[in-house]
UniProtKB/TrEMBL annotation:
Origin: domain of life: Bacteria
Membrane topology label: Multi-pass membrane protein
Protein name (Swiss-Prot/TrEMBL): Predicted PurR-regulated permease PerM
Compartments in which it is found: Cell membrane
Family statement drawn from the similarity comment of this UniProt entry: Belongs to the autoinducer-2 exporter (AI-2E) (TC 2.A.86) family.
Keywords, in A-Z order: Cell membrane, Membrane, Transmembrane, Transmembrane helix, Transport
Organism: Geopseudomonas sagittaria
Transmembrane annotation, as ranges: 60-80, 154-172, 221-249, 269-289, 301-324
Primary localization class, coarse: membrane
Source taxonomy: Bacteria, Pseudomonadati, Pseudomonadota, Gammaproteobacteria, Pseudomonadales
InterPro entries found in the cross-reference section: AI-2E-like (IPR002549)
Pfam (any one): AI-2E_transport
GO terms under cellular component: plasma membrane
Amino acid sequence: MIEHDRLLVQILMLALLGACLWVLAPFWSALFWAAVLAFASWPLMRGLTRLLRGRTNVSAGILTLGWMLLVAVPLIWLGFNLADHIRSAMALLKDLQVEGLPAPPAWLAGVPLFGGQLVDLWNALDVQGAALFAGVKPYMGEVGNWLLARSAQIGGGVLELVLSLVLVFFFYRDGPRMAEYARSLLERLMGGRAEHYVELVAATVQRVVNGVLGTAAAQAVMALIGFLIAGVPGAVVLAILTFALSLVPVGPPLVWIPATAWLFWQGDYGMGVFLGAWGLVVISGIDNVVKPYLISRGGNLPLVVVILGVFGGILAFGFMGLFLGPTLLALAYSLIGDWIASQPHSRHQHQPPAS
């Protein structure tokens, strides 16, 4: 009878846990990002609390307000600047539709083997430009619907970001209590090794945060250098946009490719070639080197496991997988290592034959 009662209690607890997960399902992403942000900036929270003599609520409120200002102000600024750039792009497209392409550059005819064909292709595109726009016009409505859908997704992302910034206050305020609760749960499940796995998860998440932010900063700096050398207007705005888009997969090309196209359109072909090569090799290429190095630095996880965790996590879970992938592989790697180390090693000793 006691065994049946215990089984019934376990079933009820599992049902309660499932119901709680169902209730929290719409907020998983916001909760995840709030937890990552609070964890990454916890040294600031600890130092500010010490400075304010233990006033946890005040410290949490100040840091939360600071994050809101730090995120909201650049977003608004970028929004206005992007609106100006979109208007300029629309004006450029309208001029292209009315006036057509400019005359082919002189160096185009001098390209070995293909110079004449390239000039003919340029002139054909100029002549057929009006027909091209007329053919594309029926699809502009679908493009507008697609842009509207993407705008709705961006709006949902902004709302999720705002919710994350609100939730981060509670992670700041109740962080130690949540950490102790999680530690007690793991001790109940794993015993004496719980502390090791808590430290493993914390160290992995911290290295991923450092890798993501460090790579984004490096790409923004390289983009700023390239834009300044090429003479692209609004280089600082584009560099900040590169930093923001570096936090998502294949984000930086959305900045340097249009800038390269603008240089070609202005007739600055040399700088256009330079910026295209700089963007492909330096701005985008640095992500594949710096991020895995920063994430694996200071840990005992092999670099190949880190790389698989980063890219496999992104493919499996989206952007959240950038954090979940390496963390899950680090836990699995450590668990399997502990399991192997706990197995007794049998050694076969060959006894000499009896004489």
